[in-house]
Amino acid sequence: MSFEPFALHARVLSGVRAVGYTDPTPIQTQGIPHVMAGRDVLGLAQTGTGKTAAFALPILDRLVRDPKRGVTRALVVAPTRELAEQIHQAFGELGQATGIKSATVYGGVGMNPQIQAMNRGVDVIVACPGRLLDLLSQGHGDLSRVEVLVLDEADHMFDMGFLPDVRRILRQLPRDRQSLLFSATMPEAIRHLVDETLTDPVTVAVDRSAPAETVAHALFPVEAHLKTELLRELLRRWDARRVLVFTRTKHRAKRLAEKLDGGGLFVSSIQGNLSQRRRQEALDGFRRGDVHVLVATDIAARGIDVAEVSHVVNYDVPDTEEAYVHRIGRTGRARHEGDAVTFVTPDDADMVRRIEKVLGERIERQRLEAFDYDVPLPARLDADERRFQRGGIAGGGQRGGARVGGARGGGRGGPSRPPSGGGRPPARASSGEPRSSGGGRPSSGGRPSGGGSSHPRPQVVAPTPQHAGGEVGEGGRSRRRRRSRRGGGAGARD
Description:
This protein is an alpha/beta fold. It has helices at residues 10-18, 26-36, 51-65, 81-94, 112-120, 129-137, 154-159, 163-170, 191-197, 227-238, 250-260, 276-288, 298-301, 321-328, 349-359, 383-390, 477-486, and strands at 41-45, 74-77, 102-105, 124-127, 148-152, 178-183, 202-206, 215-221, 243-246, 267-270, 293-296, 311-314, 338-344, 364-365. It has 2 domains: 4-206, Rossmann fold (3-Layer(aba) Sandwich), CATH 3.40.50; 215-375 and 384-392 and 447-463, 3-Layer(aba) Sandwich (Rossmann fold), CATH 3.40.50.300. The strands form 2 sheets. Strands 3-4-2-5-6-1-7 form a 7-stranded parallel β-sheet, with helices on both faces.
């Protein structure tokens, strides 16, 4: 089947051809006709199946057939800035011949361009909830004429505690709009939001809670202290050029990238302590191929859409089956084949069984030939290495993105200062990702501990902590609740 039977406007079809789409994916085949017919749609599909085009194409078709300038007619709400940028880019590429304009609204960047876009009534706004509410509360923008609302990655918005913000946004929209809700997974708790948002919806379910069939799965049993060397050896044998590695905590993502960088491999990380600019630089480098290995946390990686990722490596086993599906959905995208490799320790046995239940099959256990699995754990580790090792233990970092106790602090960049009296350093402000426990604070701005490359480096990012409140699209649920009780505040939200 091609895109012609959808009867899309000629200028929209021109964009489809320009990006190289030939055959619609199942979520597009099932969803586009209902969206074009004006129905509310609940779309359940794994990541990498083409959900964005499933709602972007009908919206573009609707807007180009009945042009109205100076009015925001479509609103897309996403949980993270990376996902917002991905959706914005899709509208730009698919709508390149339509004249339809879109703009992003999220925190961590300057407000002025966003204020200008909202005040002039750009056709499509793609926003994260917090910053959108901040600008609306300041009197910018008008959502009273929105015709189509899209809630994307609704399960992730629930995980991050955004539902109160989403409900406040809903109150500013006209009741006679069309509403679309798309998600890779659908926790039962979010059914209430579906009931509040959608009217007589059509449900389109494609491979719910199951990874793409184009992904091959493998488990590598290994002791925790040997994970880095095993990964380094696998990367060498794969001749890695586009590998995505997941860790449990921000600190582990940063330190692992430093350990792997060098020896012909360009490695960067994307995690919650980075500014939006640095995260975008790392992601752009990965897309171009300048960065061979990108080390990421679950929250920071939401919305990463990079073609032809050859391998996804779960350096740490995820905390939920849904997170496993989301992680490995970064490979095997758009019907390309990919490999999902997971390092497992004896402590991970329960989660492995749960993942296998979702897959409906036993995952093959593999051992790397000629790799020494008998190297003992060193008798002494420095404080930073102890923290790194503890970060891989389930519960070593808070699950679900909530902050581990302690007050919100500064967390500004610059060298860390040892606490007086030999005590533990003060708690760091959370940015919505798990932290590792134990050990001292990592120093910022230092050089990688591994052997660095002597030749000129491409533009890759060295992670540096960001001040509290600058994190966008990644606020943990507990942080959102505290903010709600305080009454919120501009500038510290998405």
